[in-house]
Amino acid sequence: MAIISRGFRGKRDVDPRIPPGQYLERGFPVLSAGPTPRADLSTWTFSITAGGAPRASWTWSELTHLPHDDIVKDIHCVTKWSKLDSAWRGISLDTLLDGVEVAPEEQYAMAHCDGGYTTNVPLADLRGGKAWIAYQYDGAPLPPEHGGPARLLIPHLYFWKSAKWVRSLDLMTEDTWGFWERLGYHAYGDPWKEQRYWGD
Ligand SMILES: Nc1nc2c(c(=O)[nH]1)N[C@H]1C(S)=C(S)[C@@H](COP(=O)(O)O)O[C@H]1N2
Ligand SMILES: [Mo]
Questions:
Q1: Domain containing residue 93: CATH number
Q2: How many separate domains does the chain show?
Q3: For residue range 138-165, what is the model confidence (pLDDT) as tens digits?
Q4: Domain residues for 125?
Q5: What is the pLDDT of residue 180?
Q6: Within a domain: residue 187?
Q7: Oxidoreductase molybdopterin-binding domain: which residues (predicted)?
Q8: Residue 88: inside a domain, yes or no?
Q9: What residues of the chain score a pLDDT lower than 50?
Q10: Three-class SS string for the chain?
């Protein structure tokens, strides 16, 4: 009597790649807390700082000449859409952090963006092939509304952690909250544990 399984499980019989509480989105929604900033690539830089003090910095040309990864990952927004197999090109944070001196107590980072958006993430989540500075989407330059010229891509965390228009990562010795985290979003944001809001 194996016939029952489909109807019995009904709507819950979903793709195992979709985390709990999420639905499959085939488009690519734009979610921005403010206007889309426009960057001038001739003066644009990406920096790693610590307590605000510079540690390393790359011009657009320097950054995009580093060895890149082509990344195909599922992404999950806290507003409940998930998109499968999104295709990006970017520089691994491993590559960027490689040449940077990091003190053992600097275990957290805050992403800072044009427009003022911030989000916090443990440094461990930026290492080990889990995070990138992405500058292409689907084989084309990353569109401004999706974070172009470059955004953070941390697909294993809810997508609000993937800061658009990112300009720096500030290394911190304590986990300080960013924009959405101060407004009630979870400090870490694991979609598989449904860490959406404070207390989840
Ligand atoms: N700078 C900045 N980055 C941001 C946001 C934002 O408002 N500003 N929104 C976040 C949220 S809540 C999500 S779900 C994703 C949305 O990315 P998308 O617009 O490319 O879908 O970007 C994240 N990064
Ligand atoms: Mo989001």
A1: 3.90.420.10
A2: 1
A3: 999 999 999 999 999 999 999 999 999 9
A4: 23-27+58-193
A5: 98
A6: yes
A7: 34-180
A8: yes
A9: 1-10
A10: CCCCHHHHHHHHCCCCCCCCCCEECCCCCCCCCCCCCCCCCCCCEEEEEECCEEEEEEEHHHHHCCCCEEEEEEEECCCCEEEEEEEEEEEEHHHHHHCCCCCCCCCEEEEEECCCCEEEEEHHHHCCCCCEEEEEECCEECCHHHCCCCEEECCCCCHHHCCCCEEEEEEECCCCCCHHHHCCECCCCCHHHCCCECCC
Question: 34 lies in a domain?
Answer: no
Residue 4 has a pLDDT of: 46
| pLDDT score of 133 | 99
Residues with CB under 6 A from ligand 1: 29-33, 77, 113, 115, 117, 146-147, 159-160, 162-165
> In ligand 1, which atom is closest to the CA atom of 180?
12
> What is the reported pLDDT for 29?
97
Q: Which residues surround ligand 2, an ion (CB under 5 A)?
A: 31, 77-78, 160
